[in-house]
From TrEMBL:
InterPro entries hit by this protein: DUF3391, HD/PDEase_dom, HD_GYP_dom, HDIG_dom
Organism: Alteromonas stellipolaris
TM spans (from-to): none
HD-GYP domain: residues covered: 132-327
Protein name listed in UniProt: Metal-dependent phosphohydrolase
SMART domains tied to this protein: HDc
Top-level taxon in the UniProt lineage: Bacteria
NCBIfam families referenced in this protein's UniProt entry, alphabetically: HDIG
SUPFAM superfamilies the record matches: HD-domain/PDEase-like
PROSITE patterns listed in its UniProt record: HD_GYP
Length: 397
């Protein structure tokens, strides 16, 4: 039976099913046996406040053997697993979700701009749908984060960050409600930018110090607006921290180190990654590999290094939706990760040598030994419209 307890009630012989509440940075597994008091004390020291134990998995500390199991109650299962589906099956729903997300984001931004309230149940329900899509097949929505309209950056950025965070949270083994809240925070994190003048928000060159001060104000604009809603305060805190940095040189509060929540640190990483890889009207986004390098260069002084490493691990060396140049001089889109990090499943669609599109063909590079990835690629380097290819040959929504 699953039972919620506080950290002071955690004893040797208990089995931890899930961490519910914590403060500071946690670097322990979500589940596991408590074989000694030292482990319980360590969890407390690391900031664990409340947790769920599984009484059916209790064991004798002396022997290490499981205690006799009690008859499981009917209500034992608290979270039903979402059945996995193929990429093709999920793309239809994911494409519709992506369109719906941009529409909701536009409505939210208009509400903020006019200082009007919004129905928080709409974006919250949408965030739950995103998480369900990620559970069914994360690759569908991850593909869509790479399909961008340059004029829709503000709409797409928050949507993409919500998708990235849903994937990130699931990778870390967070609970359903935690992942939904994390994704929700990503969806709302940049609402304050609608209050920033367009000439600053969309300025192609480097901002002046005065312009940067105005730009930094977007966090406060968003938080002030959200504080007038019924949004959970912990979620607002996460949103308020997406530009804070571990060295205390972030903004708006200059919060430092352990005082930044884990969710805030995760949001900072996903926000920065999507901003670096996004296409803008005035510039093309960089490759995921270059963005990963920048994230790592900012850790551990500014970004949380273990979380950056986990983010890169969950995205993969060649993230789903990104382009790669193959050894046969053909471009391909990454569709799925495999057990071999350097050999994903891809869809080949363009001949660089002959500069023309090909009949799309799926290849599993883990089993196809005659072809391998030469390097990551960016569509703008080859002057091709990857959005048109995706809509024609990948998306079926």
């Amino acid at each position: 039976m699953l039972k919620k307890i506080t950290i002071k009630d955690l004893k040797p012989g208990m089995f931890v099913h899930q961490i519910l509440e914590q403060k500071g940075q946690l670097s322990v597994k979500s589940q596991g046996r408590v074989t000694s008091q030292a482990i319980a004390d360590a969890l407390k020291k690391k900031g664990v406040l409340t947790l769920v134990v599984d009484t059916d998995k209790a064991f004798s500390v002396s022997s290490g053997e499981p205690a006799p199991k009690k008859e499981a109650p009917v209500s034992k299962k608290i979270e039903e697993k979402v059945p996995k589906v193929s990429l093709e099956n999920e793309l239809t729903r994911a494409t519709k979700l992506h369109v719906q997300g941009k529409r909701i984001q536009k409505q939210l931004l208009n509400s903020v701009k006019k200082a009007q309230p919004f129905d928080s149940s709409i974006p919250k329900e949408f965030s739950a749908k995103l998480v369900s899509s990620v559970d069914r097949n994360p690759d569908a929505l991850l593909c869509l984060t790479k399909i961008r309209e340059k004029d829709d950056y503000l709409l797409e950025h928050s949507l993409n960050v919500a998708i990235l965070l849903a994937n990130f949270g699931r990778h870390l083994g967070m609970s359903e409600s935690e992942v939904q809240d994390l994704s929700y925070s990503g969806f709302l994190h940049d609402l304050g930018k609608i209050q920033i003048p367009d000439e600053i928000l969309h300025k192609p060159g480097r901002l002046t110090d005065d312009e940067m001060d105005i730009m930094k104000g977007h966090v406060k604009h968003g938080v002030d607006y959200l504080n007038e809603t019924d949004l959970d305060k912990a979620l607002i805190r996460t949103i308020s921290e997406h530009h804070e940095r571990l060295d205390g040189l972030g903004y708006p509060m200059g919060t430092k180190g352990e005082n930044i929540s884990r969710e805030g640190r995760m949001l900072a990483i996903a926000d920065m990654y999507d901003a670096l890889t996004a296409d803008r009207v005035y510039k093309s986004g960089m490759s995921s590999q270059k963005a990963f390098s920048i994230l790592l260069s900012d850790a551990p002084s500014r970004l949380d290094l273990p979380l950056v490493q986990q983010f890169i691990k969950c995205m993969g060396i060649y993230p789903v939706g990104s382009l790669v140049l193959l050894s046969n001089e053909r471009l391909a889109m990454v569709l799925e990760q495999t057990d071999s990090p350097l050999a994903p499943k891809v869809k080949v669609f363009y001949s660089v040598r002959n500069a023309h599109f090909l009949e799309p063909k799926d290849i599993d590079l883990a089993s196809e030994k005659t072809v391998k990835v030469s390097k990551a690629a960016i569509a703008s380097d080859y002057k091709i419209d990857v959005n048109a290819f995706f809509e024609r040959s990948v998306s079926i929504g």
